[in-house]
Write a sequence for this structure.
């Protein structure tokens, strides 16, 4: 006999997912619920206990822990837990403890199964429960895009054609003709018989580097090959291949699997995967004849951006594509400047900083740039030229929708237009003397990339920064503290904390309170493990490889970054479509319930990671490559 | 009818009631089959740890406070242990109290004349109720109501009384928050301190007692909800003031 449990039913009805269920269904859940009281501090679930029910928090607060005892999540009134364990072999996955005196309604597995089978709302809610909710959102978004769904390895038509580095150009040409390929990999074989790719030669190389200069037939192939070619992991996706080609301006990419070349793909292989092509937009940008034409291409960029977001491209993909657009504009602007001013009197390198350097550019991003000059720089003789160059580029960027940097981080500022040795000293000083200004500069300049000129100059800079930072615990802990300055907009539990007044009342700034603190936090950890990566996702890979953070944490941070960025990008796309000014202020009311929940989870991850940083100040783990041991102390 | 209770004056104050023995004595005299089965099934040993005691939380809504003049209107019953309250196995009965339904009490329990007219007499509900109580320790908030009303009701219908061990959550609260057991000097000090600090005596009512354990507010005066509320309160009291090993005889009356 089922008795009507009015109190239980009435309370369940107030919360997701029960609020969306029919009256009689909730009544049935209530009639089948049991109850238990746990005083503050007592264990509710122990790891690996058998579990045949899930729990609804009637009052109080509980905390969930990971297998290793690490804090995982905090839940309050109206939230449920244990459902993941029900779906996972009925074993408790997250030991749970009452943080406050807690009253739980216990709902048996039979009811759980019944609800999952008959009610979509409920099934959706529990299936995306816990942190895996983020994971699933992320992977679902990825899957809905053709270019992200297709592994680049699927484009491999055949085994790569290989010649040994001792071959001559003539022998190579014969082999390419026999095999009917437009490119060949040059390999070196070591004593153990393992071969590694040392170069690539294409039809075009034969034409431009061999026939045109009229070299001898027995010229070694190493003389005309492109050494150390850009390669791509065969496990990556078509879109990654496209980005790599755009980025490095190459048309052939060797695909690697555990250091072995498994194939080569050409630009033509990719084209069919993109119709309304980002590649064409880039091509148009790079062909633009003048400022005005560049500016007019802004609408193509906007269209491309909106399309990618609407196709649910992942944030890395969108950020990278936007970066490629940004860099193309930047490069074209320098070239246009050169047409007016003539070539630079001494070698130089234009740096981009911040989001563009991290491959995370989004609409509305500031222009942050700087000039690195050859050490032969003589201010009297050369600076006039570089001042004009910097002004041209900066004005051009502003005209193309990259506002001037309010902090003056632009090559137009004298301080940020310096020869290489001065830059090197800047970096060393900021690390050695971590003042407040040094921290500000570090967080800006330590995400750096070359855009134009001697872009290879950034490599020694990155190595210097990684090496010195990883050995300066004082610097790392200062940067760590700076990274805690902004906290996610999350109340003690459950709710978003919104701006209380001003222009953006009742909204939250997803950049300032979300992605920016997360990027800062990841930067500190990346520097601590001596990573030279710039992109947040790549940095997380390095942090994970170094086992610097507890297992699972880098993945959680990556998913959090993905969610926050996705919501941000969708918000931007909306504003771009409605021709509004792009900003990062999001009103949670405007989000779907699904996004709101995911966003909360993401903030929770950030919050956890910040707390971790608070209790365990960052310590350098030495430069990348050194053997690292995960300390449990 | 009057049944002497010789066991009562044999017992010294503070000594736990030997409920198993009381059941055996009753079994020798009992006439009604249902009660015979009840006593025959017995009850846990006095030394049994709380963790091992099967309990039922019980609550009555009545027409008034006098067991001889007033009657039971509704009964809520929820079986439970220290580990779990089986509210899914809870039971709820509304019975016809005869002519005794008073306007004043209707205000509380919101069960009206028309609702009870169709309902059975308590005698039809007793078998289910007694079965549910068998081998369990009854937990109530303020034992005078449930114990005395049930005894009176059985007596009126079957002409013999009904006894059963009871844990009283209000009694437990009273012992924790009131100084009645202590000497007059201690009581006076506590009284003066409370007056000086402007604090009133702690309320012992169910809702007020629950808030001291951070239990949620339930709407009162529904027998089933109150039974559930009582079970929750006892779990909370046990968690805070006793251990799972506390012998049941420390608490039953």
């Amino acid at each position: 006999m089922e008795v009507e449990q009015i109190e239980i039913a009435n309370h369940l009805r107030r919360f997701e997912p029960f609020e969306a269920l029919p009256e009689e269904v909730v009544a049935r859940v209530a009639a089948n619920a049991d109850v238990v009281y746990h005083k503050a501090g007592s264990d509710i679930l122990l790891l690996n206990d058998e579990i045949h029910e899930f729990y609804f928090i009637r009052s109080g607060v509980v905390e969930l822990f990971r297998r290793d005892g690490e804090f995982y999540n905090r839940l309050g009134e109206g939230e449920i837990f244990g459902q993941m364990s029900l779906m996972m072999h009925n074993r408790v996955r997250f030991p749970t403890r009452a943080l406050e005196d807690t009253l739980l309604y216990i709902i048996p597995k039979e009811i759980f199964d019944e609800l999952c089978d008959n009610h979509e709302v409920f099934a959706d809610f529990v299936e995306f429960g816990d942190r895996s909710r983020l994971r699933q959102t992320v992977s679902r978004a990825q899957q809905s895009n053709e270019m992200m769904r297709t592994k680049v390895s699927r484009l491999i038509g055949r085994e790569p054609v290989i010649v040994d580095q001792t071959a001559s150009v003539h022998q190579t040409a014969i082999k390419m003709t026999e095999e009917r390929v437009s490119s060949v990999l040059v390999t070196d074989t070591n004593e153990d018989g393992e071969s590694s790719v040392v170069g690539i030669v294409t039809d075009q190389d034969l034409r431009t580097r061999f026939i045109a200069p009229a070299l001898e037939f027995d010229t070694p192939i190493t003389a005309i090959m492109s050494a150390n070619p850009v390669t791509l992991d065969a496990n990556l996706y078509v879109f990654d291949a496209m980005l790599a080609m755009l980025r490095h301006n190459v048309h052939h990419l060797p695909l690697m699997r555990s250091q072995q070349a498994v194939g080569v793909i050409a630009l033509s292989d990719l084209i069919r995967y993109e119709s309304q092509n980002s590649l064409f937009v880039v091509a148009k940008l790079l062909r633009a004849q003048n400022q005005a034409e560049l500016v007019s291409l802004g609408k193509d960029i906007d269209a491309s951006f909106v399309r990618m977001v609407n196709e649910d491209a992942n944030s890395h993909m969108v950020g990278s594509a936007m970066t490629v657009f940004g860099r193309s504009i930047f490069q074209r602007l320098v070239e246009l400047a050169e047409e007016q001013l003539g070539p630079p009197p001494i070698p130089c390198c234009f740096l981009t900083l911040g989001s563009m350097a991290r491959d995370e550019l989004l609409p509305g991003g500031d222009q942050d740039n700087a000039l690195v000059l050859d050490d032969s720089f003589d201010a009297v003789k050369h600076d006039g030229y570089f001042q004009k160059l910097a002004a041209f580029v900066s004005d051009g960027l502003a005209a193309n929708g990259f506002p001037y940097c309010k902090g003056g981080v632009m090559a137009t500022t004298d301080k940020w237009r310096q020869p290489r040795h001065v830059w090197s000293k800047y970096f060393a000083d900021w690390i050695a003397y971590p003042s407040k200004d040094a921290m500000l500069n570090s967080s800006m300049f330590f995400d750096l990339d070359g855009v134009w000129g001697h872009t290879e100059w950034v490599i020694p800079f990155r190595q210097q920064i990684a090496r010195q930072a990883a050995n300066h615990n004082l610097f790392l802990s200062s940067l760590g503290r700076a990274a805690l300055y902004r906290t996610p907009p999350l109340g003690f539990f459950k709710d978003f904390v919104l701006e209380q007044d001003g222009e953006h009342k009742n909204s939250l700034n997803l950049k300032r309170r979300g992605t920016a603190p997360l990027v800062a936090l990841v930067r500190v950890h990346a520097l601590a493990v001596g990573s030279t990566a710039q992109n947040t996702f790549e940095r997380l890979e390095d942090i994970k490889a170094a086992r610097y953070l507890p297992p699972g944490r880098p993945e959680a941070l990556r998913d959090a970054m993905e969610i926050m960025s996705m919501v941000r990008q969708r918000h931007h796309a909306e504003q771009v479509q409605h021709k509004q000014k792009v900003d990062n202020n999001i009103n949670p009311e405007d989000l779907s319930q699904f996004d709101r929940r995911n966003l909360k989870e993401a903030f929770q991850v950030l919050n956890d990671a910040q707390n971790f940083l608070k209790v365990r100040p960052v310590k350098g783990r030495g430069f990348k490559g050194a053997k690292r041991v995960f300390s449990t102390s | 009818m009057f049944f002497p209770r010789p066991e009562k004056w044999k017992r010294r104050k503070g000594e736990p009631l030997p409920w198993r023995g009381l059941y055996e004595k009753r079994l020798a005299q009992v006439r009604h089959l249902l009660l015979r089965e009840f006593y025959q099934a017995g009850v846990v040993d006095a030394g049994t740890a709380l963790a091992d005691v099967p309990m039922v939380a019980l609550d009555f809504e009545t027409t008034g406070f006098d067991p001889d003049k007033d009657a039971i209107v509704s009964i809520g019953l929820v079986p439970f242990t220290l580990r779990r309250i089986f509210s899914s196995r809870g039971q709820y009965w509304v019975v016809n109290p005869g002519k005794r339904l008073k306007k004043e009490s209707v205000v509380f329990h919101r069960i009206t004349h028309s609702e009870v007219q169709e309902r059975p007499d308590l005698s039809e509900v007793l078998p289910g109720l007694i079965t549910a109580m068998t081998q369990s320790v009854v937990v109530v908030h303020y034992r005078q109501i449930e114990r005395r009303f049930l005894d009176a009701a059985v007596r009126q219908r079957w002409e013999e009384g009904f006894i059963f061990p009871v844990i009283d959550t209000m009694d437990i609260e009273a012992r924790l928050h009131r100084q009645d057991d202590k000497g007059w000097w201690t009581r006076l000090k506590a009284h003066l301190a409370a007056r000086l600090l402007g604090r009133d005596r702690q309320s012992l009512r169910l809702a007020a007692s629950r808030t001291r354990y951070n239990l949620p507010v339930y709407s009162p005066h529904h027998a089933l909800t109150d039974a559930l509320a009582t079970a929750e309160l006892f779990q909370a009291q046990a968690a805070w003031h006793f251990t799972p090993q506390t012998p049941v005889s420390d608490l039953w009356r």
Observations:
- The two ends of chain B are 23 Å apart (CA to CA).
- The mean pLDDT of chain B is 83.
- Residues 123 and 157 of chain B are 7 Å apart (CA to CA).
